[in-house]
Amino acid sequence: MANSVALGLYITICCVAFIMSKIIVSFLLYKRWARKRRIIEDTFTDGKVVMFRSPTSRSLTSKAFMKKTMKLSNKDIIGSGGYGTVYRLRIDETTAFAVKRLNKGNTDRDRGFERELDAMSDIKHRNIVTLHGYYIGAQFNLLIYELMPNGGLDALLHGNIPLSWSLRCKIAVGAARGLSYLHHDCIPHIIHRDIKPSNILLDQNMEARVSDFGLATLMEPDQSQVTTIVAGTFGYLAPEYFDTGRAATKGDVYSFGVVLLELLTGKRPTDESFIEEGKKLVTWVKEVIEEKREEHAIDRSLVSVPVEKVRKMFAIAGNCLESDPSRRPTMAAVLKMLEQINQTNL
């Protein structure tokens, strides 16, 4: 008798526990659904979506875009950094965007969004990523970009598939053309402040596109420099920037010189081999140039490279990396030099 009572009590407790667990799980799922629905409703009531007219976005409504955006998850992430997370947003089989999300509440991110929007809103250039629109909301901001199918130069350059000499030349010229446009043809002029391989994206034709304007600084034509907080990526920053805190186009030229060295040598400025020897990529290459041993510094994955053109490319990089910024060429001059030595490759 006692055993039957105990068994009945045990079964009752198990059933109650099972029912309670189901109720709790259902409650949590409901709260998650309600929270997500509430965010979607906030997006339309408290936020503003602006889509620029283009063949890619003309058939996309703001409501449809935001609904798809709310379904993005970690599996859609294609890049991240201090100024936001970038997602691949696929609309259909032929249309996709790169969406940069910047959560609110962080002053740097809010300013980064404003800088990027100021810099990109009027730019249309073959070597600059295209901004298709933006969203300003209570909880987060979004920047809607054209998706670059071949990703960033950093991943390709340091990946398993070697880049040919002609392709590296093409990428160098494209990136230089984009920077030259920012420095000389935009009004106000734009100083990028974070030129590096990961911020040079590649479209379906392997054409270089300068991207990520979260640190960009606008400069009026009558100015030569702008006082800013020192920011950027270690290894690519011009030495005078640390001393003065003043951003100038010649700082971008220096950073581009480091990118040229990376294209030539296949080594990052923070490569372990340099750290072990107590050197830097820039100082190592300068020694190589002085000793006229450029062909020995070339990326080992490259074969049958034209030695004379390699030396000229190293010389251009060396000019960009002059310690005195007044001795560095402008990006317009760098572009012209690159086009001259690589015209047979492009």
From TrEMBL:
<dbReference type="GO" id="GO:0016020">
    <property type="term" value="C:membrane"/>
</dbReference>
<keyword id="KW-0812">Transmembrane</keyword>
<dbReference type="InterPro" id="IPR000719">
    <property type="entry name" value="Prot_kinase_dom"/>
</dbReference>
<keyword id="KW-1133">Transmembrane helix</keyword>
<feature type="binding site">
    <location>
        <position position="100"/>
    </location>
    <ligand>
        <name>ATP</name>
    </ligand>
</feature>
<keyword id="KW-0067">ATP-binding</keyword>
<protein>
    <submittedName>
        <fullName>Receptor-like serine/threonine-protein kinase At1g78530</fullName>
    </submittedName>
</protein>
<dbReference type="GO" id="GO:0005524">
    <property type="term" value="F:ATP binding"/>
</dbReference>
<keyword id="KW-0723">Serine/threonine-protein kinase</keyword>
<dbReference type="InterPro" id="IPR008271">
    <property type="entry name" value="Ser/Thr_kinase_AS"/>
</dbReference>
<keyword id="KW-0418">Kinase</keyword>
<dbReference type="Pfam" id="PF00069">
    <property type="entry name" value="Pkinase"/>
</dbReference>
<keyword id="KW-0675">Receptor</keyword>
<keyword id="KW-0808">Transferase</keyword>
<dbReference type="InterPro" id="IPR011009">
    <property type="entry name" value="Kinase-like_dom_sf"/>
</dbReference>
<dbReference type="GO" id="GO:0004674">
    <property type="term" value="F:protein serine/threonine kinase activity"/>
</dbReference>
<dbReference type="InterPro" id="IPR017441">
    <property type="entry name" value="Protein_kinase_ATP_BS"/>
</dbReference>
<keyword id="KW-0547">Nucleotide-binding</keyword>
<keyword id="KW-0597">Phosphoprotein</keyword>
<keyword id="KW-0472">Membrane</keyword>
<feature type="transmembrane region" description="Helical">
    <location>
        <begin position="6"/>
        <end position="30"/>
    </location>
</feature>
<feature type="domain" description="Protein kinase">
    <location>
        <begin position="72"/>
        <end position="341"/>
    </location>
</feature>
<comment type="similarity">
    <text>Belongs to the protein kinase superfamily.</text>
</comment>
